[in-house]
Write a structure and sequence with these properties.
The chain is mostly helical. It has helices spanning about 1-5, 10-50, 90-95, 110-130, 135-155, 160-175, 180-205, 215-225, 230-255, 265-290. It is about 70% helix and about 0% strand.
């Protein structure tokens, strides 16, 4: 099987694409439930703190089990449990015409979009890197970036449960110089965090406002750990340009106020993906212009 995946790239691309569709279905669960799980944890911590201070503790009467596995996915309108045949990525949505099989309520197109994006990007990663440590680890990175992108877009949160393991995983993967050498990966994690941390405090001292969240520091640190410190200028530049263009477009077209906060995580994730796939050719072309 390994020989087939190595010698026939299209087989690996096809398998990665199918696996990406399945992972995309799971990422929909992560995107929806992880912020709610974090909120529950925060409430529990506040209740425990209140108890230690002698205050009254407000406890939920029906604190049912809630995680990435339980309870089973169900229609929010009628509570219909989603069966396996109704949960086939993309195809079930098309077969059901975007509606609940039981009550006919509309299903958000977000679900097939996430599945399709994950499948397409998984195939692209498999084609670009081929079968091996680089290809498999790059798939994990891209799946994490997709989850972070949509969570941040929804809630303006970048969960530590994803960003912190991503930093460590980047350092571990680069122990064998998979994407960069270990020294560059370590410096990338350090400089990535400090770069946005410095911008955060400079902006706060000048304006008395917070310009970004701590999750952005950790995400850039993770990208630095995966790609090395040399890619950080490209990631910051690309994310800033894309963020500025999208922000201006939203202000002009959607008539959003300038004081409405916009998540920066999706732009960092997009810039990280570009740097992962084409960062070195872009940097080489840029440097050749100065020779």
């Amino acid at each position: 099987m390994i020989d087939a995946l190595t010698s026939m790239p299209l087989v690996f691309v096809a398998l990665a694409s199918v696996l990406g569709l399945l992972v995309g279905s799971f990422l929909n669960v992560v995107i929806h439930r992880l912020p709610k799980m974090m909120e529950r944890e925060w409430r529990e911590q506040c209740a425990e703190f209140a108890a230690t201070q002698g205050g009254e503790v407000a406890r939920s009467e029906n604190q049912s089990k809630y995680n990435l596995v339980a309870p089973r996915s169900a229609c929010p309108s009628c509570g219909h449990r989603i069966s396996a045949i109704e949960n086939v990525p993309v195809f079930s949505y098309l077969a059901l015409r975007g509606r609940c099989r039981s009550c006919g309520a509309k299903i958000s197109p977000r679900y097939p979009v996430v599945e399709a994006i994950t499948g397409l990007l998984s195939g692209l990663i498999a084609w670009h890197f081929g079968f091996g440590l680089a290809g498999i680890s790059a798939l994990i990175l891209v799946w994490a970036l997709i989850a972070l992108t949509f969570i941040d877009a929804d809630t303006q949160l970048l969960p530590d449960g994803i960003t912190l393991p991503l930093i460590w995983l980047g350092l571990i993967v680069n122990m064998d110089d998979t994407f960069t050498d270990l020294r560059s990966a370590l410096l990338g994690a350090i400089f990535g965090y400090l770069a946005l941390w410095s911008v955060y405090w400079a902006f706060k001292l000048l304006t008395k406002k917070e310009g970004m969240g701590y999750g952005d520091f950790k995400l850039l640190a993770a990208l630095g750990a995966w790609l090395g410190w040399q890619m950080l200028p490209l990631v910051i530049l690309l994310s800033s340009v894309v963020g500025a263009v999208v922000g201006i477009a939203l202000i002009v077209l959607a008539r959003m106020g300038r004081n409405i906060p916009l998540p920066f995580g999706p732009y960092l994730a997009m810039a990280g993906l570009i740097a992962l796939l084409w960062g070195r050719p872009i940097m080489d072309s840029y440097l050749q212009g100065f020779q």
